Structure formats: structure tokens, C-alpha cells
UniProtKB/TrEMBL annotation:
Organism: Roseburia inulinivorans
GO BP: DNA transposition
Top-level taxonomic group: Bacteria
InterPro entries: Transp_IS110-like_N, Transpos_IS110, Transposase_20
Name assigned to this protein: IS110 family transposase
Domain Transposase IS110-like N-terminal residues, every copy: 9-99
Transposase IS116/IS110/IS902 C-terminal domain span: 208-267
Amino acid sequence: MRTPITENLIDKGYLVKDVNTAISHRQAKHRGAMYRKSDSDDAEAIALATLNMLDKLPDACPNDAYWSLGQLVHRRDNIMKQRTRLVNQLHEQLCIAYPSYKSFFNDISRPTALYFWEHYPSKKYLKGKSVEDLRAELVPVSHNKCSTKTCEKILDAVASDKVKNNAYQDARDMVTLSIVSDLQHYDSQLTEVDKMLEQMYKMLGCTLTTIPGVNVITAVKILAEIGDIKRFANANKLAQFAGIAPLHLSSSGKGKDVATKQGNRRL
């Protein structure tokens, strides 16, 4: 982790180690202090873990690039959580305004769908709209992907749903419009964050995306957890840090490898 005290100690020539929380927790458990939670208990557990495992612990990684990458990844995760929450709220509103909305928009948060909810939060705004009118409006937004059939589905579904006019529909529409506005805002932020993540990935010169199935987002999440790979003496050290190195248990000349509970569980 990048902190002022870490940087200061490294600048002065001190050896600084990174103690994973799983290791300090295990140390506290061995001391019988698992259920005692205070700063002094945590500090003692970390100190004992450092003394007992000094050679096995990775060096601290105060590198600005990886710290900044981790902050961006964390920000992206928060945006995605907020976006999921907003999509669920939009589902609640659409169930009332357009009961058959899933028949014409499978993904209610894609740009074309958001445009539709923004301009037609309820069926009253579609009054007098023909299939041709709706298609002419949605085609540019959907980049020519919105067909006449889709527009027919929308108008047919609205006609068959027979949703009654509500005295407080304007209030409900305002809620829908507010949710759509928030989603558009987060989508814009997500685009900017993803663009910056891609730039940082290229700047670090990593080749993780050459692995089939690993895209830039997956790669930067891995890099944010690992940090500078040069702080690990060899591949075995990295495997231990990640918690994917098997633990060998032996007794009476017989042994077996089991999965370890140590390491970075997020990684």
C-alpha cells in the first residue's frame, strides 16, 4: 500500500514488508486474540507475523503507478455497484409504466433504451406516435440497429398492456427520469475511467491480455492487487502471495498437497 510512512521508510533505506490481512488474522488466532479487535492487537499480530515470516513476505510496493491504478479500479467497482443499484430501481418503475418492457428491450440500460425512457417515461408521451415516427427517432440513437419490427413491438405492447392513467403519474415519471439521468451520468464516467485504465495498462507494458479470455479490465484488476511484480523474487513467491500455491502436509512419511487459505483472496 502507498502511504507517506511507507515511502519515507523506504527512502531512508529501511526494509518494508507487505503483511496480508489473512496472515495477521491467522497470527491473532494462534494467540487466542481472534475475537479481540483493537489497534494494539492488530499491531502486535502484524509485528509477530513479520518476525516469523520475514523472508517469505513480499516487499511493500509504494509505486505511484500501481497505487493510482488501484484507485482507478476501486472507482470503477464503485461505479458498477451504483449502476447496478440504479438499473434495479429502473426495473421497479418500468414494471408499472410498461409491464411488457422486456419484450422490446432486453437490456434496459443500453443507450437506445435509456433514450426511450428519457423521452417516454410513461405511455402518455407515445400518444399519436406512429411506427414510422418512432423508428425515425430511434434509428440515429441506435446506430441503425433499431428496426421497424422493434418499434411495432413497442407500440403493440403498450396497446396490449392497457395501463390505466394515474393521477400521480407525473411524480412517477419524474422518478424514472431522475434514474435515467443518473445512469447516463455513470455511463459517461465509466467510459472515462475505462479509457484511463487502458492508457495505464499500455503504459505499464503488461502482456496479460495475450492470455485468452483476459481483457483490459480483468488485467488491470490483477495488476492492482499484485502491484509491481519485480518485488517478488520468483514465481513461487507470487503464487504464495496470490494464495494459489498448494500447502504440503505430511505425517509418518506420507504427505499430500491441499489448498491454502493464505494469500490475497481478492486476487
